[in-house]
């Protein structure tokens, strides 16, 4: 049995090592995405003009009026003091061609005092330019920058499958790390004085044992983040009912009707303020987005600058039909069924933000550890592979020498 487990661990590890090495390093970086992005690109984050800031809704109106080719799809409702207000945008349809206007950007940074666009970029584009570096790394982390093909997000599926293999392999690795009850101390030891291959082996085995629980959490949440709808939610629903929402249950969306008009962002924010009071939320609406393909709005409730949710289970979100203003669903952290709360906790756990700053430091360290475990695993495999090849060569040489001796 152990021989089969060793073989499985070897091939699971070899198959996923490169993916996990990339995911580990990029994860360690994007734990600090906002801070690093701001340090690299101060002109994109710091407002040029001092003075009273306009509301996010007013800034969005000005941006769309100045450039009719685009529509604002996401915006914070207020800018952080001294900072730009960053919006996501998409092209409108050109009535002359019935195709989207050509835009080479999907994110803009707006001076909150004047409405002037300070910067533009294509978030997530493959580029090592300073302006694009952190969004490129962020997207690389969960998609490997692989494209959509036939309507399928190949990168998200690949990384989700890697996460599933990683989960199984982590269990196998733990079983292999404790070959006997008497030898359990060796599984935690680092033979620092031995150096070379011995230290590499201990770093891989013992290092993995010490942080095994954290590795399992990161592996599980990576599957949940990448394959929530097709894999995780169906499994969770076998054990606990999940509250429908328009993102994961499109059947609750109303099909657009002829003559439908889209309610203004201002109206949706009014509805959100009323709903927030009814839910007794402690924070006001902090951001709004419009998903044209769903014909729906989403509103997040958070303090200015806390769009990620820096502590606990994250921010509340509610969704409205864009034409009727009907409330379509709500995700309130800590409320709902056991399945709802399990789903809610996935991103805060994966990002470390559930524990605030300390959690982000921890998850960044785990990311580096994942890269190190992947690298040491490959080194161990290569050394053993070379040893097996040398053994086979020596056996062949001995056999050939025996044949020559027999002929003579």
TrEMBL record:
Transmembrane segments: 12-32, 154-178, 209-229, 361-382
Lineage: Bacteria, Pseudomonadati, Pseudomonadota, Betaproteobacteria, Burkholderiales
Top-rank taxon: Bacteria
Keywords: Membrane, Transmembrane, Transmembrane helix
Name this protein carries in UniProt: PepSY-associated TM helix domain-containing protein
InterPro entries, per the entry: PepSY-ass_TM (IPR005625)
């Amino acid at each position: 049995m152990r021989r089969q487990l060793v073989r499985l661990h070897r091939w699971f590890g070899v198959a996923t090592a490169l993916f996990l090495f990339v995911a580990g390093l990029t994860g360690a970086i994007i734990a600090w995405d906002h801070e690093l992005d701001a340090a690299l690109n101060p002109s994109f984050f710091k407002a040029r003009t001092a003075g009273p800031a306009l509301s996010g809704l007013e800034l969005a109106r000005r941006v769309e009026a100045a450039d009719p080719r685009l529509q604002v799809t996401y915006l914070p409702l207020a800018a952080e003091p001294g900072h730009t207000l960053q919006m996501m945008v998409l092209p409108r349809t050109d009535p002359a061609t019935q195709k989207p206007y050509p835009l080479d950007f999907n994110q803009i940074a707006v001076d909150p005092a004047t409405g002037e666009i300070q910067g533009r970029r294509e978030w997530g584009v493959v580029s090592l330019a300073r302006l694009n570096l952190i969004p490129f790394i962020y997207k690389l982390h969960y998609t490997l920058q692989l494209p959509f093909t036939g309507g399928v997000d190949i990168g998200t599926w690949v990384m989700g499958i890697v996460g599933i293999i990683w989960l199984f392999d982590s269990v196998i690795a733990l079983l292999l790390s404790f070959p006997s009850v008497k030898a359990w101390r060796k599984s935690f030891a680092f033979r620092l004085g031995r150096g070379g291959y011995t230290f590499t082996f201990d770093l891989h085995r013992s290092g993995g044992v010490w942080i095994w629980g954290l590795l399992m959490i990161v592996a599980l949440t990576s599957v949940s983040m990448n394959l929530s709808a097709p894999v995780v939610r169906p499994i969770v629903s076998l054990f606990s009912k999940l509250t429908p929402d328009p993102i994961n249950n499109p059947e609750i969306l109303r099909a657009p009707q002829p003559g439908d008009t889209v309610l203004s962002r201002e109206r949706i924010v009014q509805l959100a303020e009323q709903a927030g009071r009814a839910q007794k939320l402690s924070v006001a609406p902090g951001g709004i987005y419009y998903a044209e393909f769903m014909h729906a709005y989403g509103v997040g409730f958070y303090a200015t600058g806390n769009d990620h949710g820096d502590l606990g289970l994250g921010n509340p979100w509610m969704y409205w039909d864009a034409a009727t203003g009907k409330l379509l669903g709500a995700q309130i952290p800590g409320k709902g069924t056991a399945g709802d709360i399990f789903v809610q906790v996935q991103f805060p756990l994966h990002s470390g933000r559930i524990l605030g700053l300390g959690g982000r430091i921890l998850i960044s360290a785990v990311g580096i550890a994942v890269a190190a475990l992947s690298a040491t695993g490959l080194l161990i495999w290569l050394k053993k592979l070379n040893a097996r090849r040398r053994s086979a060569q020596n056996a062949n040489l001995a056999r050939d020498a025996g044949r020559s001796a027999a002929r003579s």
